[in-house]
Amino acid sequence: MKTKLKKPLSPAAKNSAICYGLVIVFYLVMQVLVYTDHISSSLNGQLIPICVYIVMAVSLNLTVGILGELSLGHAGFMSVGAFSGAVAAYCLQDVIAFSPLRLFLAMIVGGIFAAVAGVIVGVPVLRLKGDYLAIVTLAFGEIIRNLVTIMYLGKDENGLHFSMLEQNFELAEGGKMIINGPMGLSGNSRISTFTMGFILILITLFVVLNLINSRAGRAIMAVRDNRIAAESVGISTTGYKLMAFVISAALAGMAGTLYSMNSSTLVAAKFDFNTSILVLVFVVLGGLGNIWGSIIAAALLTVLPEMLRAVDDYRMLLYAILLIAMMLFNNSKFKQRLIEKRGLRQQAKLEKAQEGGR
Amino acid sequence: MANMLEVTSLGISFGGLRAVDELNLSIPKGALVGLIGPNGAGKTTVFNMLTGVYRPTDGGIRLDGENIIGKTPHEISKMGIARTFQNIRLFPGMTVLDNVKVGLHNQMPYTLAESVFHLGSYRKKERGMDARALEILSVFGLEEAAAYRASNLPYGRQRKLEIARALATNPKLLLLDEPAAGMNPQETGELMETIQLVRQRFGVTILLIEHDMKLVSGICEYLYVLNFGRLLAEGTPGEVLHNPDVVVAYLGE
């Protein structure tokens, strides 16, 4: 029994193609601009943050759009990745001279630490639903930030020294404080590059898109659409919720490493509630569950404040107005009607096919 | 002893309310049995206990000889009970095909690593799932709708899709909760044919809740009547529907 399963790109494959295409075109265009020196220095400085925020937005979309749970603590995982990755990069400094490889390994360490944090946060949090879950993720995000703020970690010839609350170790001569409590990281070697950011985006897309188009991804979306029905067809909802949450945290951790290795100093206060909300804004404006939407929203909204510097006094005003306009559009009758029309068209097609079949 | 489902003195209380009490059911393999009763009699509560959504306060449930009390809904699904819901519960954001493929979740499993890297048996299993899902959909005349969003299907076909998804789990026992609710007589007639066909094609034992007496007496071999959580009568449709107690329960004195 061979039924025609339409080969011309399934919607899922089309989505993936758009995502990869967007990112590759963006990278090539920017590279050309950089090499031909047609790029403003402020935009040039934004290239790595754009990559970071694209990864953050895509990974948060996995939790919010695909799993359907509102998380307000995504910056917390970014911070775990940022600091653990920076420590790893410092420790590997003498071992691996080739900096892209060192950055890559640091990212993996950052991702693993963030994944562990994801498990620790996820196990209790994912028992909750809706608003309660959102509030608790917010709290966990703040807890992580505060924990990092009281961490002291230094390295000398005797190895790593670590303490909480106050620095109760002395470093031998030639040693260096890597994380210095509220002062955060200092003296990072800036090894992040735009190309590494591009590679990280590709890795993120590869993981997220492949996951969505698989058995596990379908299970995650089934849990989102109807938890009780998902259980009734044999899906362990807690397991798949945790899986999506942890993968999302790990990717945010890798983005955090990329972020921290882009500046020589970094304080934990950077990864506060505002950053979580900022990333959530990218996801919501790009469309829940829409990966390429997240990419565009993250890129545009990261650059926008810089572009608006020309009208400095009204910069934040315009930014806010644009955000509100986009929100209004997403909720407008106009867009609703577009979506309804698409649904009706499909239904009409279906009924036609049905009549033809009789 | 060829009973697919054996329910013995099953009961559940919600606080002070005794929703189901001293219920005994035995359903032979391959049978098509109806569970009827007035609104609020506890029929859906029985389904929820059979599928692990509620944990019974007392009594026992055996599926094909195995105890299922205390198991979670997804474990019970793996053991072979599938169900549909009174208020349709599809995965509206997913395509018709994916809805059925979710039902195949435990039929053709592959690992998370294979999911993320699309390696190993990923392609083979996905192709197998597509073929199997389309085969099931074709039983319900839904194969040409495979690529549409489930929420865009008309109501009657959503009901059919829900049955298709349940069958994808390869159940021994299929529970249908008011499959004809909201259907017109023509659609109900079609549904009766579909249920008969499902029984032949999939060799599955079926227990259904229904209010439509025409459907119930048309296809069920045996009926259980529930009233106020207790078994009021049982027997063949002819016997049950002429039982004075049942008439009183439905129509009043």
CATH superfamily of the largest domain in chain B: P-loop containing nucleotide triphosphate hydrolases
What CATH architecture of chain A would you give? Orthogonal Bundle
Number of domains of chain B: 2
CATH topology-level fold name of chain A: ABC transporter involved in vitamin B12 uptake, BtuC
Q: Tell me about the largest β-sheet of chain A.
A: 3 strands, antiparallel
Reading off the top of the CATH hierarchy, the class of the largest domain in chain B is best stated as Alpha Beta
The domain count of chain A comes to 1
Describe this structure in words.
- The complex is a heterodimer of chains A (358) and B (253).
- Chain A has a single domain (11-34, 42-315), classed as ABC transporter involved in vitamin B12 uptake, BtuC, CATH 1.10.3470.
- Chain A is built from 13 helices and 3 strands.
- Chain A has helices at 11-35, 41-66, 74-91, 99-125, 130-149, 194-212, 215-225, 227-232, 237-260, 273-286, 291-307, 315-331, 333-357; strands at residues 151-156, 159-164, 176-180.
- In chain A, strands 2-1-3 form a 3-stranded antiparallel sheet.
- In chain A, helix 3 runs parallel beside helix 5.
- Chain A is globular, with a radius of gyration of 22 Å.
- Chain A starts with 10 loop residues before the first helix and ends with a helix.
- The model of chain A is unreliable at 1-8 (pLDDT under 50).
- Chain B is an alpha/beta fold and 253 residues long.
- Chain B has 2 domains: 3-80 and 171-251, P-loop containing nucleotide triphosphate hydrolases (Rossmann fold, 3-Layer(aba) Sandwich), CATH 3.40.50.300; 92-157.
- Chain B has 10 helices and 10 strands.
- Chain B has helices at residues 43-50, 73-79, 96-103, 112-117, 122-139, 155-168, 185-202, 213-219, 237-241, 244-251; strands at 3-14, 17-28, 32-36, 58-63, 66-67, 81-83, 173-177, 205-209, 222-227, 230-235.
- In chain B, the strands form 2 sheets. Chain B has a 6-stranded mixed sheet, with helices on both faces.
- In chain B, strand 1 and strand 2 (17-28) form a beta hairpin.
- The relative contact order of chain B is 0.17.
- Chains A and B meet through helix 6, helix 7, helix 8 and helix 13 of A and helix 2, helix 3, helix 4, helix 5 and helix 6 of B.
